Amino acid sequence: MQENRPPGCENCKNPCTIHLTQIVEGTMHKVDLCASCPNAKNVDDPTGFSIADQLLGLGAGDEMAAGKGDLCCPMCGFTQADFKKLGRLGCSSCYNTFSEGLAALLRNMHRGTEHKGKIPRRFKTTMELTQKIFSIEEDLGLAIKNENYEDAASLRDKLKKLKAQLPD
Q1: Helix (DSSP H) and strand (DSSP E) numbers for the chain
Q2: Least buried of 36, 94, 107, 117, by fewest C-beta within 10 Å?
Q3: Which 3 state secondary structure label does DSSP give 158?
Q4: Which long-range contacts (CB under 8 A, 24 or more apart) does 50-53 make?
Q5: Cβ proximity of 9 and 34 under 8 Å
Q6: Distance between CA atoms of 167 and 24, rounded to whole angstroms?
Q7: pTM for the structure as a whole
Q8: Around Cβ 59, how many Cβ atoms within 10 Å?
Q9: What is the pLDDT along the chain (168 residues), one digit of tens a residue?
Q10: Are 84 and 64 in contact (CB under 8 A)?
Q11: Is the dihedral of CA 5, 10, 16, 17 positive or negative?
């Protein structure tokens, strides 16, 4: 069930630009604020954590301020500072330029760095059945070639059962 929340700031009803979620003792609390009201809800720095900090390492903003974060995309000129400020990359070349940090970020956030996608359950079952059928057909061909007719008959029966399970 989706919670109906007013579109405005909880403090002054201006449009929300800050959306915070905090989990305390297993209970989730959401706070929606405009840019000028974070102090009213004791939020010191609503922009203090960003995906850029994760990518570039916590405290990356301090390094950039000191001039240490000089990575720059050769295609669009996007820098680490731009990424930290906007929270997104500038172009497709940025993924190569910032790849080391992105790989580390993805490894921490997900199970890997390679997208494998999902397979619908119905299709996955069909795919697994098709692979079994293919394997048994190969074994059947080998059994016939070697004139092992008892095994061939058994494989033929297994094949019929599996093919009956395939959806139309």
Answers
A1: 7, 2
A2: 117
A3: helix
A4: 50/84, 50/87, 51/87, 51/105, 52/80, 52/83, 52/84, 52/85, 52/86, 52/87, 53/84
A5: yes
A6: 48
A7: 0.34
A8: 9
A9: 445 555 678 778 788 777 777 666 777 777 777 877 766 655 555 444 454 454 444 444 443 333 345 788 998 988 877 777 777 788 888 888 888 777 776 677 676 677 777 888 778 888 999 999 999 999 999 999 999 999 999 999 999 999 998 887
A10: yes
A11: negative
| Residue 126, token pair as written in the block | 């069909």
**101, 57 in Cβ contact below 8 A?**
yes
Place of tokens 């007719």: 149
Nearest alpha-carbon partner for 166 in 126, 132, 133, 119? 126
Residue indicated by tokens 């079994």: 132
